[in-house]
Write a structure and sequence with these properties.
The complex is a heterodimer. Helices cover 70% and strands 2% of the residues of chain A. Chain A is an all-alpha fold. Chain A has one domain: Four Helix Bundle (Hemerythrin (Met), subunit A) (Up-down Bundle). A two-stranded antiparallel ribbon of chain A has the order 1-2. In chain A, strand 1 and strand 2 (76-77) form a beta hairpin. The longest helix of chain A is centred in the last third of the chain and has 33 residues, at 158-190. The radius of gyration of chain A is 23 Å and the shape is elongated. By secondary structure, chain B is mainly alpha-helical. Chain B has helices at residues 2-10, 17-38, 41-45, 49-68, 76-99. The N and C termini of chain B lie far apart (71 Å). The relative contact order of chain B is 0.09. The chains are: A mainly alpha, B mainly alpha. At the A-B interface, helix 1, helix 2, helix 3 and helix 6 of A face helix 1, helix 2, helix 4 and helix 5 of B.
Chain lengths: 226, 106
Amino acid sequence: MTVASAAATASGAHEAHEHHHYTTTGLDHRKIAIWAFIGSECMLFASLISTYLVYKGRSVVGPFPHEAWTSPAGQVFKPILDIPVTSASTFVLLMSSLFMVLALAAVEGKGKPGYEGVLGSSKFWLLATALAGVTFLGFQAYEFTSFVHEGLTIRTNLFGTSFFTLTGFHGTHVAVGVLWLMTLLFIDMKRGLGPRDAIIVDICALYWHFVDVVWIAIFTLVYLIK
Amino acid sequence: MTTDRAHADHAHEHPTWKQYKWVALWLTLITVAEVWAYYIPAFVASKAFVPTLLIMSAVKFTVVVMFYMHLKYDHKLFRALFTGPLVIAVCTLIAFVFLFAYVPVG
């Protein structure tokens, strides 16, 4: 092998390495990073959920999540959690996860048979996922606003403090996910996303599904268990 | 080598569209069952209420992680990166709940 060909081989290997971002494990470092990040996010949400559970039932004044409360001034507060509304928002978030996997499948299968038309379009599913996320945020904005109107703020009692912090952090994650999805949609519209780009959609999908599983836990622990 | 690595990365199979839709249907049905249980006063008052809800929630959590996040099909290192911190997080959560379970009387 000549020096020139060795250099070319080394350069080619370097380019391939740069392109695929592989680690010594043979796995893409971006995917390892997102899983490590999700692992750390488990810790964050466990701390917020445990704080909520520790404070559960310890509020001295209302409004309370599941019980009515009459203030010393005689004002009656009904149970503040609205289960039908939250069930609807939960359904929307669950469906958004379905849309997200279909978006990833559409990116991976672009150009292959069975991925023609609107239902095989990654743009359609990315947009559907983002819209579902925005709808979820709309439900949350409605919930927060109605709670404030009914007399529960982040400073009212221990329930208000822990509830707004926990669900607010989750909502912020959803908002970041929506921005991420909109960015992918923009890239898809600008130059198109194909099988070569599946990894960047996969990473976003993993984040989005994690936000969904956190909500699965919150919905049960905060809303349904009295 | 690059080809081998690419193969290692994408060797796992993903579920089909049909499977994704079945997963969505099961997630929806479990959620409906959870909300339904919430509106049955006799069940809410029973000792089975909280464990039942926790089990249903855990099943939903596991299904999303296994099928939508592809952990069932992916490399075991990803499984370790997720389940390790998750186990520590759940243990921390349980520890905190017990640590602060004491309520002064009177």
